[in-house]
Amino acid sequence: MLLSLLANPAVRADLNSIPSRPAKRLATKHKRLRLAEGVSLWLAMLLMLFVHPLYADASQMEMEQPGQLYLMDGQNSWRQPALILKSDFKVQVSGLLAQTKLTREFRNTSDRWQEGVFVFPLPEKATVYGLTMTVGERRVVGRIEPKAKARQIYETAKSAGQHAATVEQQRPNLFTSRVANIPPGETVRVEVDYQQAVSYRHGEFELRLPTTLTPRYIPGEVVAETPKQWQSGWALPTSQVPDAHEISPFTVRPEDVDGQSHRARIHLDIESGFPLAEVTSPSHSLQTEIDGSRVRVQPEGDEVLMDRDVIVRWRPVTGREPAAAVFYQQWQGEDFLMAMVLPPETVGPVLRRELMFVIDTSGSMAGESIIQARSALLRGLDTLRPGDYFNVIEFNSQARSLFERPVPAEGHYLARARHYVQGLQANGGTEMAGALSLAMTMDQAPAEGLVQQVVFITDGAVGNESALFGQIRQSLNERRLFTVGIGSAPNMHFLREAARWGRGEYTAIHNSGEVNRALEGLFSAMEAPVLTGLAVNWPSQGQNLAPVPGKPGDLFRGSPLVQVVRGLPAGGELEVSGQLPGGRRWNTRLNLGNAATATGLNRQWARGRIDELMDAASLSGESPDEQGIIDLSVRHEVMSPFTSFVAVEEKQARPETELLESEQLPTLLPAGSQAGMLRYPQTATFWPLLSALGLVGLMFALAIALLSRRPAL
């Protein structure tokens, strides 16, 4: 304003028309005016050259909100970890289960004794059932204990200078490994045994091996700090995420760690039981050796970078796809059976829908993820038919809808939506609760008989999953929720469970080239459930079989029913029935005497029972039966939210005169993510911009003061 005023010719003319004064005073006036004008010009240049970049940087911090801190030393500069981390996955697939031996190598490159702390992902339904620690030639087999007791055993051994290791569960797909007293220059190996169910949908099997995780957004107000020795991340506990400090590992770029660190060797041995047509992967190039029903698989190259999920898929020869299967195991005198039944490929009447698209545009979606998300939403808009209604909701720190209420799927509305979606960018926080609330409380479309569906497109990078599941249960009403996972390392636990509580289905997109393929099956399933009113009748003869899941939900096209029971020998018939689209009844029978031999069914059943007990407590609003879950966990040697594995070598290794340092090993930034995710979200503010504006304001004030001090004319 000052600059434009002084540059105005009329003002300059008025100044020049001032009555004549003594020459000295008039000269002084003109000098001050020239000084003020010069200062104003320079300040304008400073405003453009200095403040604008700061504004851009501040905006970028807001856009790249989720993330992590670099590890810092005393001089606030990056310090590479002293521990080099390598991993080895040996996977044996048989039928519907995969057993994995995951070996972590912690090599100490420093001259001091170290404790390594590593937060890592596992598959969303992984069942951890073993821990072994190896130091030199000495192997120590771990045992399962209640979590508090396991921590005490570990801390005691660490203080006493003994080699020790522990693994505990933070989320069903997130775990922490601690290794105490790693000698200088030595390597300690920790083997974790776990199993997972193989996904089978739309005629294709899939196995996913997570190696890193997308940094999770931590909502809520910070509460009291936790004991420092169990702090393993950048975040502090909050009112909404009490264990935030345990699920927020530091995230760095591959070039920020040793060139040998965060690499993995992966070998899969698949015994499918039927001839295979192909083995593929959307994440890595593969080397495969197929021999009938057996295949050996590994990614090309000796090692892969731990910056994305490893995904392997295999498809049976056309016409040999299994429609049903039964497996049997006897474990410690108890019988276990697992059955898989695929519903028929029937097509029901086309239903008119009210379809709500919810898209995550938070900072963790920046980079390749937002491109995938936009493509997925545009593909979803293409599936709308005349008579459908729709709306688009985007959310980051806030939730916003494109229209006030659902609108008809007609030309101008669709054109506006496509234009809107194409312009979406990733920035801000991941406040999912507000988006869910907006989607589920919005006024309905002004039409009768519409099927209400919500498609949630996200990477699932949140820490308050349990609260969100509760919100879905309480607010869903007649809607169905379908989830689409985005990115190279999505939170599959959130995606699967949100869809389960939402009575829907889920899928995941690993790269932009997979959008159509991944969504084809999902949108086909969304047309209508294939089988409702499901009934599963085992020949129980009055026994309490406690099947898991206890109450199977509706089955969608291409997705099978899988159930495990305890206490039933391999004999008799299993009957499965339900209602097809249009009201027709359907049923099938399986001869249990033809069950194939399997291993791990007891662990699968025990993990399922633990999940059922946790669900029951959540639905009733009561605390879970902690002791009952501990007993079940210890009996079957499977980890639970209340138990951990711990291994301790008896003799002392570290001399009392040697100090022990603790190092929190980082995870790698997921492939395709922007480097801005390395920042710490709770401190990303606009203070540089505000400080600069304050400085400029002071300089303007100084210029005005100089003018105001001139002698009266």
Could you provide a short overview of the structure?
By secondary structure, the protein is α+β, with helices and mostly antiparallel strands. Helices cover about 25% and strands about 30% of the residues.
Question: What's the CATH topology name of the domain at 353-526?
Answer: Rossmann fold
Supply the CATH architecture of the domain at 353-526.
Answer: 3-Layer(aba) Sandwich
Q: Give the radius of gyration.
A: 31 Å
Q: In terms of structural class, how would the helical and strand content be classed?
A: alpha+beta
CATH H-tier superfamily of the domain at 353-526:
von Willebrand factor, type A domain
Largest sheet: 9 strands, mixed
Q: How much beta, percentage-wise?
A: 25-35%
**What is the CATH C level class of the domain at 353-526, in words?**
Alpha Beta
Q: On the 0-100 scale, what is the average pLDDT?
A: 86
